[in-house]
Amino acid sequence: MVTGDTWQSLSDRVIAVVRSQVRRVRRRLAGSGDPFEVFLTSEALAINQARQDHLASLELDLNGKTVLEVGAGIGLHTKFFEDRECSVLCTDGRPENVAELLRRYPHRRAQVLDLDEVGDLSALGMFDVVYCYGLLYHLSRPEQALQALARVCREMILLETCVTPGEEVALHPEAEDAWNPNQASSGLGCRPTRPWVMAMLKKHFGHAYISATQPRHPDFDLTWAQPISKPLHRAVFVGAKAPLANAHLRPALMMQQVHDLAATTRG
Ligand SMILES: C[S@@+](CC[C@H](N)C(=O)[O-])C[C@H]1O[C@@H](n2cnc3c(N)ncnc32)[C@H](O)[C@@H]1O
User: Fold this and answer.
1) Is 80 exceeded by the pLDDT of residue 200?
2) Phi and psi at residue 113, in whole multiples of 5°?
3) Distance of alpha carbon 92 from the chain centroid
4) Cα(265) to centroid(ligand 1), Å
5) pLDDT tens digits, residue range 6-29?
6) N or C terminus: which one in the chain shows less Cβ crowding within 10 Å?
C-alpha cells in the first residue's frame, strides 16, 4: 500500500531532481559565471579560516581518525583532517558540488549524501568523527539527520551552525534559496536555538558540549543575553558518545563567551 509518507518522500525526490535540472539549465544560460564562486569569496575563506583556527584551538584528539564530512561543499575544509592524517569520506547533498570537489581534489573519496533524505547510513560504514560545519541550518529535518549520523559515529560530532539566540528549545524553520549551491537543497532550513542543539546532541549522542571560546569572526557571538541584531548568529558544539574531559568544552550553555586563543595570537 502506498502511504502518505511514501507519496511525500516521492514528491520530495521529484522536486529535488527537477530543481537540480533547472539549476543546471540556469547556469548554462547564465554563461560565464562560476557557480562555485559563493564558496570562494574572501568572506567565505575568512570564516573558514576562523572556524578551523578555532577547531585546532580546542585541542581535541583528531589525529588519524576516520571522518565523515557532511555538507562538504566543494571540499575547502577537508585539508584540516588530511593534515592530521585522517581518512575522510566527503559528502554533500548536491551532485554538482561533489563533482566539483572531485575535480579539484581527485585523490579524495566523495559521494552525494542528502541529509534531508537519510534513514540508515550504515552502508557508509562507521566513523570516529562526524564533521558537520555549515550544514545543520540548511536541513529541513535536522533531528532525523543527527540521529542517523549518531548511529554511524563512534566518538564525536563536531558541529558548527547558525542559531537563533534564545533560551527555549525551538527549531525555527527558515526558507532558503534552493538555487544557491551553498544553501538548503530542499529550500527549507532552520535556525535552532542553542538549547535545541544541546538537547538533540545529548539525546542522540549521549553527551553535549559547547566550546567555551568562539571563532574570531563577527557571525560568532560572544554575548548571548542581549545579542547584537545581525543576520547570522553562529556557535560551535561537540556531541560525544563518551564524556569528554576537555578544558575548552562546557556541558552547559554560557551567556558569555570569549574568542579563541589561536585567533587572539593571530591578532
Ligand atoms: C554553507 S555550505 C557549507 C560548506 C562547508 N561545509 C562550509 O562550512 O563552508 C552548505 C552545504 O550544505 C549542502 N547542503 C544543503 N542541503 C543539504 C542536504 N539536504 N544534505 C546535504 N548537504 C546539503 C550544500 O550543498 C552546501 O554545499
Assistant:
1) yes
2) -145, 110
3) 10
4) 30
5) 555 555 555 554 565 555 555 555
6) N
CB–CB of 131/67 below 8 Å? Answer: yes
Q: Which domain holds residue 218?
A: 4-266
**Contact (Cβ atoms closer than 8 angstroms) between residue 44 and residue 183:** no
Q: Cα(141) to centroid of ligand 1, in Å?
A: 14
d(CA 148, CA 153): 9
Query: Residue 220 carries which DSSP code?
Result: B
Check which CATH number belongs to the domain holding 228 and give it. 3.40.50.150
The confidence score (pLDDT) of residue 1 equals 47
DSSP string for residues in 238-249: EEESS----TTE
| 3-state SS assignment for residue 175 | strand
Sign of the C-alpha dihedral computed for residues 42, 103, 112 and 78 taken in this order: negative
Ligand 1 atom at minimum distance from 140 CA: 19
Q: Is the pTM of this model over 0.85?
A: yes
Beta-carbon contacts of 1 under 8 Å, excluding residues fewer than 6 positions away, are none
Structural domain tally of the chain? 1
